[in-house]
Amino acid sequence: MAIRSDKRLLRELNHIAQTVYCQLKPSPRQGVGVFAIHDIPARIEPFEDGMEKAEKFYRLPLGDLDTLPPHFAALIKNYSVREKDAYWVSLGSWNTYALQDFLNHSATPNVATRGEDRFVTMRKIKAGEELLANYKTFDDSWAEKLSPQARGIHKSPRGGTVKASRRKTNKKQL
Questions:
Q1: Most distant CA pair in the chain: distance in Å?
Q2: What architecture is domain 1-49+99-140?
Q3: How far apart are CA 112 and CA 137, in angstroms?
Q4: What is the pTM (predicted TM-score) of this model?
């Protein structure tokens, strides 16, 4: 005999299923990316979890990074938003990451920032499409967070690196 779930629980889970929009997958752009698991309407916050955010962010001057252990300073540089001479950091959640932490950069984004730590869809996003943000609009250290490929640097066949604008193609290879 199968055990059935409470109808209220199933209603809640069905509601949640309609508001869970994304999952992590390998990205052709850079490592891991955030992808839509079903169509996402325009002008909504795809990472909204329905709970009030209790987390507060603090301004950490760049000079204070040197006072922290190097491995933690590296995490702050990689995952915190930089604004001129400081990073915005949280005192919690350093052992877990939110989906929005995996948004990749694009000059033609489909999500934009809303406030300090929210994102909103700029248009309808189709299932299977990667969600992309323009790092330049909210992070002064945006270029440091891009992969070499995203910065236009490609591996040379000889083992060095070449800027995309200077890369020459061999017509025989085409």
A1: 69
A2: Beta Complex (2.170)
A3: 8
A4: 0.63
The burial of 36, by beta-carbon neighbours within 10 Å (0-12 exposed, 13-18 middle, 19 or more buried), is given as: buried
Tell me if 93 sits within 8 A of 41, measured CB to CB. no
The C-alpha atoms of residue 21 and residue 131 are separated, in whole angstroms, by 10
Element (H, E) at 130: strand 130-133
Using only C-alpha atoms, the chain has a radius of gyration, in whole angstroms, of 20
Q: Where are the domains of the chain?
A: 1-49+99-140, 56-91, 143-174
pLDDT tens-digit map of 129-159: 999 999 999 888 888 877 666 665 444 444 4
Enter the tokens of residue 7. Answer: 């109808």
What is the residue type of 52? E
